[in-house]
Design brief:
Number of strands: 49
Strand order of the largest sheet: 45-46-47-48-49
Shape: flat
Distance between the termini: 53 Å
Helix content: under 10%
Strand content: 25-35%
Largest sheet: 5 strands, antiparallel
């Protein structure tokens, strides 16, 4: 049985997964949004120029050669003399032969590095990443390493990847580099990035779900028919992130919306039973709010004072409105008139002629202005938090320095541009409003 704490932590992590890139990028912008001397050289989500000094997050890099400074990725950079991980010099790294291998793995002709440290014993000539856009395993053809540079006790000649998080050799199965004790390699089957089973047991990550029946265990699909991993069930129980939901009926249990579920008796949010009329309820496409004829819930929280009849969810950012108010979660955003607020797409909204960015880091407007520099009369939302007007392209409400509007015309253009942003290869400019 998974502990209350581990299940709760895991739940929070999964719910925030889609916000991670925005949080990383915007956190730098938030810290620089005051009048603190920041110029228009926010170089990417982690590197910036402040008072003509290069910074990594809030750490000044006094000895960097600004004329030759070049960003290699989100956390790596170089000048004419050094390679940097964050604001730390990778001592002795050879600039000419240095390459990135994974998130925190790199190498040159002499060494393999984890972050700024030499990975002793690893062979740079043969060192490579195994699988995936964000690899979790590495090898130099003598050993297998996890993403923290730790050599694993795996038989390299029998090593196979089953799924992104799961690998196997001739004796054991591993989840994210950790052995799944007792797993039967002959009948082992990954079910998702988190759940797996063999003929004897069901596993959540590398832990056994003691009560689960492997013969009937399934992941409950969400409304888009994807395996969301929030709810699972077998012939005896329903589980919320590995914890038994006492009283839930597995035969009739289905997920509705992104976070809600129901059986023949109740509607649930996590393990909580909601006081909702099962014959007269509504969930919107984003699936964060649910209502019946008399009440509205945001997750498991009752939204107080709402006009139920006119209440509607607005887009993807935990935002909603009724005839009287705009809501973020269960809180009222007092400064916004609901009659003037229009959803555009992603985290963007039109308010009068202003484009608002209401992504997770600015949701309540406490640490950052909601308004952007985007032209509210001439804009096109391109998806993936990318939007353009006639003069500029913006990501997460911030202007991209090196991209022109005519370069962003298709969904494929947006995907390629988003990848460059995630890799830390594009800079943004501070808002001027």
């Amino acid at each position: 049985m998974i502990s209350e704490k581990s299940s709760s932590d895991y739940s929070k992590g999964v719910r925030m997964r889609k916000f991670l890139v925005t949080l990383i990028l915007v956190s730098t912008v938030i810290s620089c949004s005051k009048d603190d001397g920041m110029d228009d050289n926010i170089l990417n989500g982690t590197y910036a120029k402040k008072f003509n000094i290069i910074h990594y997050k809030t750490n000044p890099m006094y000895d960097v050669d600004k004329k030759t400074f070049e960003i290699l990725s989100f956390d790596y950079a170089k000048d004419n003399e050094h390679i940097y991980f964050g604001n730390k010099i990778i001592a002795g790294a050879d600039i000419q032969s240095f390459v990135l291998v994974g998130d925190y793995m790199s190498k040159d002709k002499n060494h393999v590095y984890y972050r700024e440290m030499i990975l002793e014993g690893a062979d740079p000539e043969t060192f490579f990443a195994i699988g995936g856009e964000i690899p979790k395993y590495f090898s130099d053809r003598k050993k297998i390493y996890n993403r923290e540079g730790k050599p694993l006790n795996i038989n390299i000649s029998k090593f196979r990847i089953l799924l992104e998080n799961y690998v196997i050799d001739d004796k054991n199965v591993y989840y994210d580099g950790r052995k799944i004790s007792g797993a039967d390699i002959n009948t082992f089957e990954p079910l998702s990035d988190t759940y797996s089973k063999d003929s004897n047991r069901v596993y959540m990550e590398n832990r056994v779900l003691e009560d689960a029946n492997p013969a009937t265990f399934v992941i409950v699909a969400d409304q888009s028919r994807k395996k969301s991993e929030i709810y699972t069930k077998d012939n005896r129980y329903v589980y919320y992130y590995g914890e038994i939901m006492e009283g839930a009926d597995p035969e009739t249990f289905v997920q509705i919306g992104n976070i809600y579920a129901k059986d023949k008796n109740h509607i649930y949010e996590s393990k909580q039973i909601l006081d909702i009329d099962m014959k007269n309820y509504k969930i919107w496409e984003n699936g964060i709010y649910i209502k019946d004829k008399t009440k509205v819930y945001w997750g498991g929280t009752l939204v107080e004072g709402v006009d139920v009849e006119t209440f509607e969810e607005l887009g993807e950012e935990n935002l909603a409105k009724d005839k009287n108010h705009v809501y973020s979660g269960d809180s009222v955003l007092e400064k916004l008139d609901p009659a003037l607020l229009k959803y555009i797409g992603g985290p963007y909204y039109l308010y009068k002629n202003n484009i608002l960015y209401l992504g997770s880091a600015s949701l309540l407007g406490k640490k950052r202005k909601l308004e952007t520099d985007i032209d509210g009369k001439n804009y096109v939302y391109m998806g993936d938090e990318l939007i353009k007007d006639k003069k500029h392209v913006y990501y997460a409400g911030q202007r991209l320095k090196e991209v022109k509007p005519e370069e962003l015309n298709t969904a494929d253009d947006a995907r390629k541009l988003k990848k460059k942003i995630i890799d830390g290869l594009l800079g943004i400019q501070k808002q001027r409003k």
